[in-house]
Specification:
This protein is mainly α and 59 residues long. The chain has one domain. It is 80% helix and 0% strand. The chain has 2 helices and no strands. The longest helix has 28 residues. It starts with a helix and ends with a helix.
Amino acid sequence: MYLATLISSFALAVWLEVTFRVHLYPTRRERILITLIFFVIGVAWDSIPTVQKDLGVSR
């Protein structure tokens, strides 16, 4: 379900950009960079609990 939500959100964002020319950032370079930064933060956010569980670290 998580992957389906991400794919749906991505498809909606691409559709809005193509159809209405909606851009949050003026250059393509900024759009790619910000997307990659959010991707890395999201992967780290999801990975930290898994690593903690594997190492036996609990709060």
